[in-house]
């Protein structure tokens, strides 16, 4: 019979319930049935075959754990079936059954790998025991194979982990010599494994760390008592180029292999002594982390922009200087330096140039200091200095003078020549304070005293300055209440058309009706509003006051006038000014054509594209735009023609320079030419003399305001003045009621609201 004909179908695996599958093969139906009944209640999955061909067919389809095989079958012998099994490496055990009494049949079966040979008739107990033993042996073999596979995989995984570990893994014997070290040592330190095996660990350790390494590498303790996170510096093999030729820092986690030498082979719980065998360790390279920690530590105490100590490190050094001065009974000085006009540079040239200026200032200030002095950046444009061991106050004065002198030279910011100065306050220990906070606060107060007196100087602290400082705080608190109690009021300074003598507009000037101090001008309280975040609510009030005054003027039958709202940079930067303006106009029923927003050049230059977008939205609403104090900032004619501007106002600082009506004042002439060339209306501020008025009129500026004509007056008085003028004027020159479409032709009355 051709046995190869049974190699066609794939073999079905064992059943899902993992019950052993047995193939029962016998050509005598009675014996086969008896065998089946004997095994059916034993949790076996049974399959039967009555001849060799059926048996081979089952073997090609199913996987069996055990075959109970009759030796004598009608179509082939059991030996032939076993030959088939062996030839195809079928994994199953065989119990041969036969009625032959000859030894040759049994030997033939066992030689072919049969588990056992049973002679018929066999006893029930003998069969069951043989089947059970065969299956147990098979189960043990499968389990052993599985465990062996796990061990092999574990060993491969361990070798892979050790060889690919980012850390150096090593073992030392009891003498401290390397018995194993992985390949990572060559990548990090430049030493090969062969160079180190058998060498003492000390060949790798930095000389200064040998003492600490002696305890770590000879660690004999186990469990939680063993050494952890010991930081050591290891040497690099410079010639190999590994490690960049620098010493590297390692964090060593050490564990000791401490066990009974005899117990490694035969467990013996009676053995009490434990012989030290060696040390196992993992060394992690933390060089980059140490460097990063140093950088982080440095940055935590230094200003990133100027590389100066920050306020934290400054206070620490000042504290040490105070302790030393107290011990030696000497004086020290604390300086508070605030740069003058820095905000103007930042707003006009941008923050990048502002940062460059701060760096250059820091360099100049450092060059003025003595050894042992500390210069720090407090933040923004503020610097602090501690001068220890003063001989007298003149030492502090001399250094402050050197500071001011060094700042007099212009600063070059990529072609922009910038001039700044500084206000310096000085406090002396122990007379002006004995604590860090007192000295800093009093130096700060002295600095603000310099600011109030015109800037660009220095001043020593005096107790009288504290009263002034308290007055400023009280003023700030009162200003907050002024908004709630409706103590603010708008005054108006008329503007005159000198060709006709007619009042055609006014500039609004904010006044504060202070309960105790009387009427205060804007210059006396608006600087505090800017410093303390009150410009936004004050600007909101001003917008409402503008609309209310217009409403009152319109109700009194006045002419259609255009009011100019002097816009704070902070207010424009908020981004919601347009919505607030539109809401106010709607709420009070005011025509947008009666409003003109007044801005400074600095708003245009520091963020021109944003300013253009905001102002275009206002123009689309119907509101016009004017530039105030033209020529005093960092003017940019390249941007000027891009802005939707209708009016230019000549700053009073230029007007005051006019002392001769036949003189030549090129700045004023240039501004007049710009306004004429761009088709803009022109207003001169601060006109106080007839000479100034005649010069301006002769050169093309006919709209003026100043003490020569009118002082600021209340809204009620201003309305009376305009009504009186209207009665005096003939109908041919009466004030127009319509707002012209062109801001140049027949400009209507304008009220400029100045914050």
What is the CATH T-level topology of the largest domain? TIM Barrel
State the total count of DSSP E strands: 28
| Gyration radius, rounded | 50 Å
Shape: elongated
* Percent helix range: 40-55%
- End-to-end distance: 117 Å
Q: What is the fourth-level CATH superfamily of the largest domain?
A: EAL domain
| CATH architecture classification of the largest domain | Alpha-Beta Barrel
Helix count equals: 26
Structural class: alpha/beta
CATH class descriptor of the largest domain: Alpha Beta
Domain GGDEF: 330-463
Domain Response regulatory: 21-135
Domain PAS: 154-225
Modified residues (4-aspartylphosphate): 70
Question: Could you explain the architecture of this structure?
Answer:
- This protein has 755 residues and is α/β, with parallel strands linked by helices.
- The protein folds into 4 domains: 3-144, 3-Layer(aba) Sandwich (Rossmann fold); 165-261 and 272-292, Beta-Lactamase, CATH 3.30.450; 305-461, Reverse transcriptase/Diguanylate cyclase domain (Alpha-Beta Plaits); 477-754, TIM Barrel (Alpha-Beta Barrel).
- 42% of the residues lie in helices and 23% in strands.
- The chain is built from 26 helices and 28 strands.
- The strands form 5 sheets. Strands 18, 19, 20, 21, 22, 23, 24, 25, 26, 27 and 28 form an 11-stranded mixed beta sheet that branches. A 5-stranded parallel beta sheet has the order 2-1-3-4-5, with helices on both faces. Strands 7-6-10-9-8 form a 5-stranded antiparallel beta sheet, sandwiched between helices.
- Helix 11 (342-349) packs antiparallel against helix 12 and helix 17 packs parallel to helix 19.
- The longest helix is centred in the first third of the chain and has 41 residues, at 124-164.
- The radius of gyration is 50 Å and the shape is elongated.
